[in-house]
Amino acid sequence: MRLSYNELVFNRVPKPVVCGIICQGDEIITCVMDIKSPKLYRMVKTSKVKLFRNLEELYFLPHIISSIVQLKNIALETSKKAELSIIKAAENNHRSPPIPSTIWLSSQTYRLSRKRKSPSNEQP
């Protein structure tokens, strides 16, 4: 998602928002990503939905559809911003500066992990 966000900023889309869907087991997690300050990306979980496995669980379907429609609307806003940016660049024969600045972007990868407790610190 971060690479997609960076690509939108390089293409001069103002204040883009990137959407994502994470499938884990029988759940779908939808999220959006933007940037709030230099090298600080914000990823917000918008919904968590259980998938149905049989006909008795078909009542999950409206919630699944509404979550995906919510992402579609956010993606549609970003695509309209991209289209307006392209039209402005064509009309003015120059491209506007990227918002946010490309200095804010990061291409580095980090991995967060928890520090394990040592066995001597455990209490019975």
Name its key features.
alpha+beta; three-stranded antiparallel sheet; 3 strands
Written overview of the protein:
By secondary structure, the chain is of the alpha+beta class. It has helices at 2-10, 61-92, and strands at 18-24, 27-37, 40-50. A 3-stranded antiparallel beta sheet has the order 1-2-3, with helices on both faces. The chain is flat and about 55 Å long. It starts with a helix and ends in a 32-residue tail after the last helix. The model has no long low-confidence stretch (mean pLDDT 82).
What's the SSE blueprint?
Layout: H1 2-10, E1 18-24, E2 27-37, E3 40-50, H2 61-92
Q: Which parts are unreliable, with pLDDT below 50 for 5 consecutive residues or more? A: none
Shape: flat
Rounded mean pLDDT score: 82
Q: How many helical stretches?
A: 2
Order of neighbouring strands in the sheet with most strands: 1-2-3
- Characterize the biggest β-sheet: 3 strands, antiparallel
Distance between the amino and carboxyl termini: 44 Å
Query: What is the radius of gyration?
Result: 20 Å
Q: How many strand segments?
A: 3
Order of helices and strands: HEEEH
Helical content band: 25-40%
Structural class: alpha+beta
- Portion of residues in beta strands equals 15-25%
